[in-house]
Every structure is written in C-alpha cells, then in structure tokens.
Amino acid sequence: MSTSLRIEVNCRLYLRDPQETELGRRLIAESVRLIDEIGLEQFTFRKLAQRMQSTEASLYRYFENKHRLLGYLVSWYWAWLRFQIRFHTHNVPAAARRLRLILEILTRAHRDDPTTTELDEAALYRIVVRESSKAYLTHEVDEDNQAGLFREYKYLVADIARVVQELSPAYAYPHALISTVVEAAQKQLFFARHLPSLTDTSPDATEQCIYCFLEGLLFGALHPPEPA
Amino acid sequence: MSTSLRIEVNCRLYLRDPQETELGRRLIAESVRLIDEIGLEQFTFRKLAQRMQSTEASLYRYFENKHRLLGYLVSWYWAWLRFQIRFHTHNVPAAARRLRLILEILTRAHRDDPTTTELDEAALYRIVVRESSKAYLTHEVDEDNQAGLFREYKYLVADIARVVQELSPAYAYPHALISTVVEAAQKQLFFARHLPSLTDTSPDATEQCIYCFLEGLLFGALHPPEPA
DNA sequence: CTTACATGAAAGTAATACTATCAACGGCAA
DNA sequence: TTGCCGTTGATAGTATTACTTTCATGTAAG
Questions:
Q1: Residue A125 covered by a domain
Q2: For residue A58, which nucleotide's C1' is closest to its Cα?
Q3: What residues contact B66, with CB distance under 8 A and at least 6 apart?
C-alpha cells in the first residue's frame, strides 16, 4: 500500500516506533494537525487523544512526553529534507548550482510532495518554523544532544556544509554559514507572516524574496570583496 | 542612590511597573538568576516566590504570567542593547565603522557593564540566547504584536538597518539582514556551547570567531561579487 | 487453544497556573 | 490622633497539566 520511502530517526526519541502501527501513524498525522492549530504550548496528549478517539495512556506508550514528540516530528522533517536534497542534487556536478538548488528546496520546502503521503506537509513545515528551535533551546540540551536527539539536524547541516567546502575550500565557517542560512530560511518566513518589519519581503512573493536574500547572503559570504 | 539609566519597555508587558518598588526590582533580579539556572520551562512563580521569601500572589500582581515576564526581560535587554549601541556609535561618522562597532557590541554584549547595576548581565544574556525567541514563537504572536510587545526588538533592528541603508542604499534586504545577524549572533554562541558541530568556532576564541563570521556575512552581503 | 501484546477505560497523583479573600502594616492626610 | 489607602503576606481554592497505574478486553501469532 504505502510505497512512500521510510524516514528513520533516532530511536531514542520514541518509546515505541509510531511508524509500525496504525495508531502510531494516526498519532503522528493528527499531532501535526493539532500542534499546527493550537501551538505546542496548548497542545496536550489529552486533547490529542480526544481528537483521535483514543486515550492518553495509549499515546504515552509511544512518546515520553510532548517534547519528545516534537523532537520526533522535526527530526523526521530534517531527514525528509535531506532526502529531498540528495534526490534533487545527486547528479548535479557544479557545487554552485547544487547550492542554489538546495537553497530553493530550503525556501519552498512546505509544498506538498507526492512521495510522502498521509502527512500534512504544509502543517509540518509551519510547526518546524514555529517550534523546531524549542527542541534544542532547553535546559537539557546537553543530555539530549548526548543521546543523539539532534543528529538529523546535524547531518543536514553537515551535508550542505560539504557542498560549501567543495565550492570554497578556503572559507572558514561553512557550518556556521549553513546553520545560519537554514535557521534564517525559517525565521524570515515567520517574520514575513507575523512581524513584517523585521524583514523586507513583498507579500505576494515572500518565498522568492527570501530565496534572493539568502542567495546574496550565502554567495556574498563565500566571495568576499577584495580586502583593499 | 541608583544613578543607572532608566530603561523603559512597553507598559503592557506588566501589570505594575517592577522598577517602581523594592519587591518589583527583587522580582526582576531574582527571576533572571532563577530562569538562568533552571530554564524557562521549569521556572514557576511559586519557586521564585519561595526563593525571594515572598508569595505567589504578590508576584502575580506584577506580571500576568511567566511569558509576560520573559517578554519584559528580553525587551529590557533589547532596549539596553540599543542604548549601548547609541552610546558607543553616536559620534562615529563612517557607517562601515559604526556597523563594525555594532557587531562588536552584539557579539560580546554579555560582559558586565558598569552603567547598569543590580542585574546579572551575564545571566540575562544567557536567557536572551536561550529563551528570547520563545517570546514571539507562539500561537499568539499576532495579538502580542498588535499589543506592541515586540517593539523594542523592532526598534533595535530598525536602528541598525538604518546604518546598513546609509552604507549601501541599494541593498534590498536591510531588515532581513539585520534580524538574521542579530539572531545568528545568539544562535552561534548557543551552538558553540552546546552543539559545536553546527558552528566553526575555536573554543578559546568563540566570540572573536562569531564576530569574524558575522562580519564576513554582513559585508559580503552588502558588497556582492560582480555579476559576471 | 492459549499466549502475548496492544489498546481502552478508569482512576489517581503531584505539580502548575492561576484567582480570591482577608488580615496586617506603613504612610499620609485631616 | 484617627482614619483611610495601598502594598504585601498568608491561606485556601480551582481547573488543568503531565503524567502513572491497574485491569479488562480484543486480536494476531504460535
């Protein structure tokens, strides 16, 4: 039935793999919609259970708490994005061209994609934009990091940073540059929607504006003005 | 007694101005320390009251909830930073030089400063780094924005963007560039401390590395390579 | 057939996020 | 001095959150 590719995330994010059961898959699909609707702070397993016609206890068998569920969702997204990037750039020889393709994917990653179904991609992307940084901006970062909960994000940054290194081997900050660009892609979209004075996008071409802004940022950093 | 400058923030952030009473000032000072220690999620007014030898009810007379308190603290920080920037750049004619000074302030803003006392600046800066984006990454952004709760941040970005515009009037994304740089200054510091594979800083010169990275980013964007 | 296991149902606990009431104190005004 | 106001403290109370526990039931696999 489901021919969609299987995205794997760190198993320490869940107690039981939600991909393996019908209830688990519904949990994921419905939680994406509910978190998108009411926000992470208002989201509870009780509300999710009610909406799914299931029970709190059942859901707690999949995830320790909602924070881990968030970690799962965003990790899943990073892994999916990484797959998208590999897929769309695997036979592009020029690093500069590959980098531009990646930037395009980063800035319009919320469009629905036929390979993965059952999931509201647009809602998931809104969750990534609004909530993903809360996965690591906690007092427990170091333990969570030790447990490998952020590795999908690290892999993504490392993959893209490698393209930067190929293009500009002398550039000293490839990881910082890419983590900045990835975060900015989300933040600028959020600002465009909610705090427009923090950005400079035209309302009817937000994504293109963000793309152009980030392209200038990225390639500007890699080809600096001659030190006079 | 207190000769320190008075930082004003949007009065809708609080129910009663905490600067005006002894209890209010203790509230601020102690909450900075406690949030820094245990993180925003674990922080409650009950714990703060216990630590201050006061009561929950008294503290709720100053702030509606801990989210507003966070908003107050980070707004205070942005206002303070803006003052620092004005103070240190007010008689520097060259926009490029002013921009570099601002970048320096942004990347070492957590050093203690003699003009403001009573407050643990280093702890406040750690709070800004870890928690500030949670002030606006909520489901209620739009209402909070309507109420003007983010105006200090907007003012700061607008101020710096004006310098960018002076330096490069043709550049199309001054606000996006500055909001990106301001956020990156914090994020890269957080990454350096907790998720070092997302950055490229040497452990003994983190701030300098971040400064150099951001300088390249900022001026690279403003002086793009000639379109061949 | 029975066993293992996933789920549902129900209840319970500790903590959180508040709100309400009232008494005590201190300052100031008549 | 008396009387009032406003701030704080003390106590209690409520609804919700974030879980955990126990047990019954249905179902799928051996």
A1: yes
A2: C7
A3: B40, B43, B44, B45
Is residue A70 a part of any domain in this protein? yes
How far A75 CA sits from the closest chain B CA (Å)? 15
Our count of domains for chain A comes to 1
pLDDT at B1: 37
- Please count the CA atoms within 13 angstroms of the CA of A124 that sit on its side-chain side: 26
Contacts of A57 (CB under 8 A, 6+ apart): none
The encoded tokens of residue B53 equal: 């030898």
**CB count, 10 Å around CB of A102?**
25
**Tokens standing for A78?**
């990073």
Cα radius of gyration rounded to whole Å, chain A:
19
- In a domain, residue A57? The reply is yes
Q: Which of B26, B9, B156 is nearest to B68 (CA)?
A: B9
Q: Name residues whose C-beta falls within 8 Å of residue B114's C-beta, 6 or more positions apart in sequence.
A: none
- Whether residue A97 lies inside any domain: the answer is yes
Is the CA virtual torsion B178, B179, B184, B185 positive or negative?
positive
Integer-rounded Cα Rg, in Å, for chain B is: 19
Query: How do residues B169-214 score in pLDDT, each as one tens digit?
Result: 999 999 999 999 999 999 999 999 999 999 999 888 999 999 999 9
pLDDT value for B3: 42
Q: Are A175 and B200 in contact (CB under 8 A)?
A: yes
Beta-carbon contacts of A25 under 8 Å, excluding residues fewer than 6 positions away, are A18, A19, A118
pLDDT in the model for residue B128: 97
DSSP letter string over B152-207? HHHHHHHHHHHHHHHH-TT-S-HHHHHHHHHHHHHHHHHHHHH-GGGS---TTSHH
Q: Is the dihedral of CA A160, B134, A12, A45 positive or negative?
A: negative
Confidence category of residue B227, pLDDT binned at 50, 70, 90? low
Instruction: Return the residue of A nearest to B43 by Cα.
Output: A139
CATH number at residue A21: 1.10.357.10
Q: How much is the pLDDT for A219?
A: 97
Question: Which domain covers residue B192, as residue numbers?
Answer: 70-222
Identify all chain A residues contacting B210, using CB atoms and an 8 Å cutoff: 176
Which residues in chain B have their CB less than 8 angstroms from residue A139's CB? 38-39, 41-42, 130
Per-residue pLDDT for A67 more than 70?
A: yes
φ and ψ of A125, to 5 deg: -65, -40
Give pLDDT, residue B113: 63
Count of CA atoms in the C-beta half-sphere (13 A) of B60: 7
